[in-house]
Amino acid sequence: MIEVQQLTKRYRNTVAVNNISFSVTEGQTLVLLGTSGSGKTTTLRMLNRLIEPTSGTIFIHAKNICSQPPEVLRRSMGYVLQGYGLFPHYSVAENIAVVPKLLKWPQQKIQKRVDELLQKLQLPPEEYRNVYPAALSGGQKQRVGLARALAADPPILLMDEPFGALDLLTRAAVRKEFKELDELKKKTIILVTHDVQEAFELGDQIGLMDKGKMQQLASPAELLFYPANGFVREFFNQHRFQLEWQSVCLKKIWNDLPEVRNHMNATLSSDQTLWHAMEEVANHDTDVYAFDEETGSARHVTFECLKIAIQKQKQQG
Ligand code: ADP
Ligand code: MG
């Protein structure tokens, strides 16, 4: 779907992006993770030709993006800017309608789409349609920015620190909503963030960048259990405990848990994470059980078993 080959962007004194390659398959989310200045924004902007690469090639749907006019390319991608990037003198509805207007949609179709998106993003249209950005909270502005990117239903979404301007609590809540939004489930997404927790929650694949280079591109669990080098290992050290428990599902350690016959009292399912299971155990005075739909089997979940299982995972890594 998106194929990036040996992409480089050089400025006079810096190599902002240094020979990186990656691909994203349709419907997947790639997170580009890295500290400030690691080249994330530059990479994203080269994908929709806001910046022209010094060298390297980008294919989208097997087509070299340089072979089409930037305006046509940009119509196939929604872009959520760092900050909120809303036009202050446009109402909420006008902000969302920017791309459909460029595409010359009939007025009625635009209105219908705007209201549909506002509804889906929990901003009742009657209340918010005609409001200006200054009157919105951070979380609400973020949703309008997302609605604008989604307006013409592009197959690809590029997002630059989309939750970066929100406080921690709002952030976690908006991220949860974001994950559950049906409009996003089929999109191919490249999301840029410096937030490790966010990367692990949202990424199918994570590309960890440093000084313009891709240090490792892998699934969240691979980054933790099979780091490619010392930089990758150290990058996650501060969050390691929580991330490890969040990146492994019960299913993965199913056979390390004691089998039980009766699953009538199961409160967990096998596709939930060890972190979730640990919370469940901590919050219950009684025994906790998990059920696996696929095999119809059940397991007894205890803190001790979880601990042993994750240690086994680490030794295999
Ligand atoms: P990130 O988004 O990861 O914080 P950027 O992609 O914005 O990083 O920047 C990567 C590096 O390239 C930084 O060192 C930045 O200073 C440099 N850079 C970005 N844009 C320009 C520019 N227009 N001119 C010169 N240097 C730039
Ligand atoms: Mg940036």
What keyword list fits this structure?
317 residues; alpha/beta; 6-stranded mixed beta sheet; 4-stranded antiparallel beta sheet; 14 strands; 38% helix; binds adenosine-5'-diphosphate; binds magnesium ion
Helix content: 25-40%
Mean pLDDT: 92
User: Bound small molecules, which ones?
Assistant: adenosine-5'-diphosphate, magnesium ion
The total count of strands amounts to 14
Kindly, what is the distance between the CA atoms of the first and last residues, rounded to a whole number of angstroms?
30 Å
How are the strands of the biggest sheet laid out side by side?
6-7-8-3-9-10
Largest sheet: 6 strands, mixed
Spans with pLDDT under 50 lasting ≥5 residues?
A: none
Give the overall shape, derived from the CA principal axes: globular
Order of helices and strands: EEEHEEHEHHHHHEHHEHEEHHHEEHEEH
Give an account of the 3D structure.
This protein is an alpha/beta fold. The protein has helices at residues 40-47, 70-75, 92-96, 98-102, 107-120, 125-128, 138-150, 168-180, 182-185, 196-202, 220-225, 230-235, 240-247, 274-282, 303-316, and strands at residues 2-10, 15-24, 29-33, 55-60, 63-64, 77-80, 156-160, 188-193, 205-210, 213-218, 259-260, 268-269, 288-292, 297-301. The strands form three sheets. It has a six-stranded mixed sheet with strand order 6-7-8-3-9-10, sandwiched between helices. The protein has a four-stranded antiparallel sheet with strand order 2-1-4-5, covered by helices on one side. Strands 11-14-13-12 form a four-stranded mixed sheet. Strand 4 and strand 5 (63-64) form a beta hairpin. The model has no long low-confidence stretch (mean pLDDT 92). Adenosine-5'-diphosphate (ADP) binds at residues 11, 14, 16, 34, 36-42.
